[in-house]
Amino acid sequence: MQKIKIWDLPVRVFHWTLAAALAFMWFSAKTGGSWMAWHLRVGLLVAALLVFRLCWGIWGSDTARFARFFRPLQIGSYLRGTWDKQAHPGHNPLGALMVVALLAAVLFQVLTGLFAADENTFLYHGYLNGRLENGGETFRRIHVNFFNLLALLAGLHIAAVLFYRLFKKQDLITPMITGLKEWQGNVPSLRFAGIGVFVAALAVAAAAVCLIWLLRK
């Protein structure tokens, strides 16, 4: 048994920053008042994180690339126990499906929030709400109600991590902190993206946020 690098720093920072940001978004929305100003600002951070992760999923390290780990057709073989985990050191097929589902749900939540109208104080409309002639109230209702599904997905994710830890004796939390995973057998050959790719992905994320800011009314 040895430890090998599985998750690079950008993936780990993205994971924990997004988790903290979503927790804050829930808190600020529930608290309301002037906290909604920060709800909008952190929403921009979440948008930047998503754009960065999408870029990293295309250009980034092997274990972060969607084309390398998103294999829904392999779920059957994974459930039957015939899936070759030695050839896939990152997400298993079920974990990959959860990652994509969570990213899609957060993206939808952000998009509806950008166009949502503030029906309470009329002070904290989504940044792109001014681009709508009407429909902001509909976006707000969708934004509020869809959060229940997002929370359900997050809860399933946490439950799955605990299930693997308690019943399958697989620690999925520590590797997402340290980047290292205990590995038995041949060490897989993994490519990790360099600083140039990181800067490029960061630049695209910053450009997306700047565009949202420029389009606000």
From TrEMBL:
Any Gene Ontology biological process: respiratory electron transport chain
Keyword Membrane: yes
Keywords: Cell membrane, Membrane, Transmembrane, Transmembrane helix
Ranges annotated as spanning the membrane: 12-29, 35-59, 94-117, 146-167, 188-215
Primary localization: membrane
Name the UniProt record assigns to this protein: Nickel-dependent hydrogenase b-type cytochrome subunit
Occurrences of domain Cytochrome b561 bacterial/Ni-hydrogenase (ranges): 7-179
Record's subcellular location: Cell membrane
GO molecular function, one term: electron transfer activity
Record membrane topology: Multi-pass membrane protein
CC per GO annotation: plasma membrane
One Pfam family this sequence matches: Ni_hydr_CYTB
